[in-house]
Hints:
Blueprint: E1 4-8, H1 12-24, E2 28-32, H2 35-44, E3 49-53, H3 62-73, E4 79-83, H4 88-96, E5 101-104, H5 109-139, H6 147-159, E6 166-169, H7 176-186, E7 194-198, H8 207-212, E8 214-215, E9 221-222, H9 225-228, E10 233-237, H10 244-256, E11 258-260, E12 267-269, E13 273-278, H11 282-287, H12 293-299, E14 302-305, H13 315-331, H14 343-347, H15 353-367, H16 372-383, H17 388-396, H18 401-419, H19 424-431, H20 435-445
Parallel strand pairs: 1-2, 1-3, 3-4, 4-5, 6-13, 6-14, 7-10, 10-13
Antiparallel strand pairs: 8-9, 11-12
Amino acid sequence: MSAEILIVDDNTDIRNIINELIIDAGYKTRIAANYNQALAEIDKKLPDVAILDVKLDKGDNDGIELLSHIKTKNKDVPVIIISGHANIEMAIKSLHHGAFEFIEKPFDQERLLNFVSRAVENYNLKKQNKEYESKLFSSYDLIGDSKNTINIIDQIKKISLTESRVFIHGPSGSGKELIARKIHKKSSRNKNPFIVLNGALLDSNKYELELFGEEKENGSISYGALEKANKGTLLIDQISEIPLDIQSKILRVLIDQKFKRVNGNNDVSVDVRLICSSSKDLKKEIQIGNFREDLFHRINVFEINIEPLSQRISDIPLLIKYFSKKISENYNIKELEIDENNSYILNHNWKGNVRELRNLIERIAILQPGTKDKISNIIKESLKIDNFDDQITENSLSVPLKEAREKFEKEYLTIQLKKFNGNISKTANFVGMERSALHRKLKGLGIKEFN
């Protein structure tokens, strides 16, 4: 579908020249000859890109007023400002109000077309990102019945109703970003941006630019994550990797709710909800001098802790079923028949947590094995687990029978207890024992019961 460009200029000749130029380039156009016509066109339907003359019939800066009006409706719509009375102050003013580009009259036609092409590309990219985020929100959920997962789901419901800053702690691949997105989606800010800044992936020299943006010598502005997230939510992932000098500047923003862009002189005020996450223990990072204690107390108004998947064994069967269904739908294949109580999966350490489990199921879907045996072989190979019989041989033949049996029973019953969240009745029913007999067995093996 061809992009639609709104052209606003009170000069008939210029308006017609731009219109023909844009149509010849393959785009659709709408035109307006004055302020009121332009306002009516904008309110009727937002264009994909707007080209606005600064001075129309209403006043010296009515083009800027139209620019602001567009941005209140959808800040992602790129607006190119043109002016026959151009000066540096005017250029800066238009860019400050969110203009995509500024061009003087008489303008170079090739340059204007280049601006339009980049503006359309920019708008389409933002639109695609929003569609992707929407799919992510709707298609993935927090799955599990472990106490930790149930508690987190409850926390999200409560936190989303507030404006509190949140700190999410959990190992790599456990779902920290998904939790942050769920909080944003359920909050009053859900119509506004959700921006992610990953502290571990940034060039050490670009932290300030990425956070605060930059005012360039030519008058243009490069916006940082804080301004991009204005009225919305900013997730700083792996905040433990942010250098101490930048941490102090983040602290100042949280206190003052304003900052200066790099090379800028004026304060920029922002309204951002901050969510931070880390796979490191920030209290330990504070002790060794890698993280500011005062910043930690500012970001840690509400803390969510995600346990490793290996400690949430009862979540694994549900996650297997969930991902099997979702991934089968994505690949348009028959739903995978994966044994949800597969001993190799339940015994695995899952260093990559939920992400590692999802990758395993996706790998099975790609290979499309035809039988359960083939699926089991893929699981064994992927998780690099030896055959269960080999484990018995390696671990048990060097010890007396009683000791080998006790070791097996202890490992087996510990896993089953975790799988059923410590529920004795469900565990006893699954392993084929009476409740009282299971209580005695657990006590005899030194296994601590939990609720």
